[in-house]
Amino acid sequence: KIGSTRTYQEKLQVAQTYTAITNNEGAPPPGVRLARETKQSIGFCKRVIKEMEEKGYVDLPYGSVQKFGHLTEEAKASLIDWYSTEPQEPYRTYASRLEDRFGIKCSLATICKFFQTHFPKGRKRGPPRQHTPPDPAAVKYFPNRAAIGAAPRDDDGNPVKRAGLLSLPDEAKKMLIRWNKEEPNETYKNYQARMLKMFGVTVSLSTISIFLKKYSDGPRKRGPRGPRKKQPEEIAAEIREAAQDAQKTVLVPEIAPFPPLKPPPRKFTMPEPAKLLLCKWNKDEPQVPYRIYQLRLKEQCGVDVSLA
């Protein structure tokens, strides 16, 4: 019994309904549907499924063995054959083949669980990819690969081992001390590229720094020092002096105002008789359009006036 009022028959009914739906439809039913079919509570159905899962009757995350009920024998045989002969193919290819050849839609999780059931050791997906060395013709275009941080390679394309402090040849050590003394303004990256070009060894920047600190005559002099950083008191004094100088300067006379942007209004060039006629027509015949006034002025007074 589960709980206080549940009997073995009710528990068995839930388990049988769950198995029957799974076998018919190829997927386990959700707890809501199972509760509706068996007329039990959802919590009780979920507890029964959990106990079935613990005892090994079902496997909910990927589906139970009953999920393979919708796979025909030919489909199962084809899956096993593909798995053995073409292990490098992805499961998505197997799923599309099943749908094309047998008309069976199968999820990737179902295919995975099917193979886990029949092949517990898993599939061997062929040998790992071999590392192909870069083309030597392409490497020659990057002579200072070490200077830009990439792993340098020799003429055969194999990576060059970095030389430590102890494995540096004597000629390289002498050249390092000489460069540090004669060209102190050069960067360590430049020394690094020269070492690779002249002696064929790759030295890290930290190794060059440690070696020169240990064997050179004191710290290297890297040219004249830059301008000294001003103190806040000096900056404040300069600002005060600039303000006092500004008060002493002569004021610049004001600039004459700019001409107005808008053109001045036009003066009427109509003769007095034309003005009197316009006022008369506007008073006596207000319904007549301006176009008629314009024509009348042209006929009677000989002036061409715009409508505006």
Structure in words:
By secondary structure, this protein is an all-alpha fold. The protein folds into four domains: 8-67, Winged helix-like DNA-binding domain superfamily/Winged helix DNA-binding domain (Arc Repressor Mutant, subunit A), CATH 1.10.10; 71-118; 145-215, no CATH class; 268-308, no CATH class. The relative contact order is 0.05. The model is unreliable at 59-66 and 144-149 (pLDDT under 50). The protein is built from 13 helices and no strands. The longest helix is centred in the N-terminal third of the chain and has 18 residues, at 8-25.
Would you kindly provide a brief summary of this structure?
51% of the residues lie in helices and 0% in strands. With 308 residues, the chain is mostly helical. It folds into 4 domains: 60 residues, Winged helix-like DNA-binding domain superfamily/Winged helix DNA-binding domain (Arc Repressor Mutant, subunit A, Orthogonal Bundle), CATH 1.10.10; 48 residues; 71 residues, no CATH class; 41 residues, no CATH class.
